[in-house]
Design brief:
Layout lengths: L24 E7 L5 H20 L3 E8 L4 E7 L3 H13 L15 H6 L3 H4 L2 H16 L7
Antiparallel strand pairs: 1-3, 2-3
Helix pairs in contact: 1-5
Amino acid sequence: MSRKSNNPSKQRPPTPPPWSEEKDWIVLVEFLPRRDAEDRALVTEAIGHMLSYAQMTDTRMVALLGDPEADAYELLFSFNSPKNKAEFLRLLRTSEVTSTEDEFILIPAQDEINAARPLANVLLEAVFREVILIATMLVSGQTGSVQ
């Protein structure tokens, strides 16, 4: 008697990402227009700052392509303590680069959290490289512009 596999394609069943059980999340939507280099550079800088804030506050940052036609990206942040969340939000709100009003700080749905991936898997490669450079400079305390 042969046994039929419950998984005919022989692929592993999808496993939820390691962050799917984390409870304290926010999401910010950013637009990275492919056809407007100046706007894309400004948003890339803002995302670099957000990544540095996440690193400074021990915050997980993942992303999701929200609306491909609008070049909209959802940036999700998970906090391990109320203190780290408060500091992240303080940094976000007080920087000229990332100043965000409360009405744009949203709570993501669980399906968004589950679908989110590391930045390198979501952002355009050139944008990701610039984001990493900006965040590294900010966290290390360097100043100047990224070329």
